[in-house]
Amino acid sequence: MVAAVHKLRNTSSVVVANTLSASFSFFGVPELIISDNGPQYAGQPFRDMCKKWGIEHTTSSPRYPRSNGMAERNVRTIKGIMKKCRETGQGTQVALLHYRATPLGSNIPSPAELLLGRQIRTTLPSHLSNPRNTDEVQENMRQRQVRMKEEHDRTAGPILAPLRVDQRVRVLDERKCWIPARVSRICEERNSYVVETPNRSSLRRNRSHLRELHKPSTSTSIQDEGIVSPVRRRVSFVEDETQSSADPNTPPTPHKNTHPSVTSTRSGRMIRKPQRYQDYT
């Protein structure tokens, strides 16, 4: 993937459409454009441009940049290059030239060579070799993509089951809270759904932001599941027989200690020292 960087005066739909049209006249017309859900891609000038060039336009799932990960990763790389050039005072175009001319691997040529079919000359000393076998390069790129997919799937988690229309789900909103919703439509994009919230608003979300709502089972009880409710421990104090039989109007008399290892408090509670302390006075 060759990264093309343009400086725009603004990000309106007209400016973006005109800039892409200039790139299409140089690199050729693509069959499909995948973008995020920015307003510049939803404007009428951008739609007219896609219709004029015969391009199909699809968008990634909102708030899920991983659905267009290759483009997002290239944007991150280009921003890092521009930041380093600003800090060191080097030219941005020269740095982008070296980035496009850097091979992707030991057996995969650079993005510029994959696009042009030949190596390009840079300001760095290098040896221009003959073009490589196209079939071999395609096989190496396919194996590279397989390895990258395996590395991603190790930590991506399990594959979630598809949802159906009118299914009750929970959706992750902007406040990072799970709210109830209902699936109203299944989008053409992969793993993308439109859900309706209780306040009648429609949200388009990826499957990763949706969770199924399971009906609670009425056949099982708390005791069947082995769940024991917490029981608060109660401490009861044994009253003295002489105190319990006395007149309730008379004030309680302090308990007389008959054992040296037993003491009583002002409320009449008996405190008995542990057995190991009886040898000490």
From TrEMBL:
Q: Which domain of life is it from?
A: Eukaryota
Which biological process annotations from GO are given for this protein?
DNA integration
Q: Which GO terms describe its molecular function?
A: nucleic acid binding
Gene3D superfamilies reported in the protein's UniProt record: Ribonuclease H-like superfamily/Ribonuclease H
Domain Integrase catalytic intervals: 1-79
PROSITE patterns in the cross-refs: INTEGRASE
Renumbered residue ranges of the record's region Disordered? 237-281
Recorded hits in SUPFAM superfamilies, A to Z, give: Ribonuclease H-like
Q: What is this protein called?
A: Integrase catalytic domain-containing protein
Biological source species = Strongylocentrotus purpuratus (Purple sea urchin)
